[in-house]
Amino acid sequence: xxxxxxxxxVWVVILASVILxxxxxxxxxxxxxxxxxxxxxxxxSVVRQTRDQRIQAAQAAQAQSWAEQLKQxxxxxxxxxxxxxxxxxxxxxxxxxxxxxxxxxxxxKDITDAFSPLGPAAVQWAMNVAWCESRYHPNSxxxxxxxxxxxxxxxxxxxxTPYASQSPFDPRANSFAAAWLxxxxxxxxWVCQG
Length: 194
What we know:
Layout: H1 2-19, H2 40-97, H3 105-115, H4 120-134, H5 155-159, H6 171-185
């Protein structure tokens, strides 16, 4: 995330120091004398000036477009960071009531997104089960049973969820499959309750 922030910062500096100063609108010139005859040099000069004005207008429009894209990207990045921070804060609060550390921010967000509609007790339960089953490692595999993923789904159980077409190692799909199983069959499908 830090490299993305640095890249955005570099583009802001380039935009502010190089592109925007060159985008100053050209001063409008009003001609009060009617020109009846143009020399070849004057015609070339007018054509060149018109072309330069069009190029400047196109560059200004492109810079404006880039500035808008940068603004939207920064807003989306800030919103993503806020969502991760909120999920991490909730996970830390849950972990403080439990006997384990909080999950990484992305895992906390996946679990929170999946279980929040089921209530805060379900989120607490899910954090405990994910810790107990896999220590929050989405690539965990039980060599004895073949259970895999964040919530350690058996292949047969995973195949019965709406997420069977996705990988059980995808922490988001695994979290939503666990929430689906929890909402349909309750918490009894997991032995390890945290």
